[in-house]
Design brief:
Elements (H helix, E strand, L loop, with lengths): L1 H4 L4 E6 L5 H8 L4 E7 L2 H14 L5 E4 L14 E3 L7
Parallel strand pairs: 1-2, 1-4, 2-3
């Protein structure tokens, strides 16, 4: 997965970020892109955001949203990742 993540650019959303297992891989990357953590549960997202800010210096955005109704206009996002979101 790392070899794919390192080719990302633009805006990269992690759908159903949860506790951040997949999102952490985005923050570790040296590639130039803006990671976006997205989860339907705002409480989990707040916890994960705090955890990631303490551990990584890479800038990122956290958005509480449902994957069925993304809080973004069409053609804004360049890549999407998810560890478990597609199962739900």
């Amino acid at each position: 997965m790392k070899e794919y993540i390192d080719t990302f650019h633009g805006y990269v959303i992690d759908i159903a970020t949860g506790l951040g297992e997949m999102f952490e891989n985005l923050l570790k990357s040296k590639a130039t892109f803006l990671p976006i953590a997205m989860d339907v549960n705002p409480n989990v997202l707040v916890w994960t955001k705090k955890k990631m800010e303490e551990k990584y210096s890479k800038e990122f955005i956290a958005v509480a949203s449902d994957a069925k109704h993304l809080a973004f206009k069409n053609d804004v996002l360049d890549y999407a990742t998810s560890m478990a979101g597609f199962n739900n």
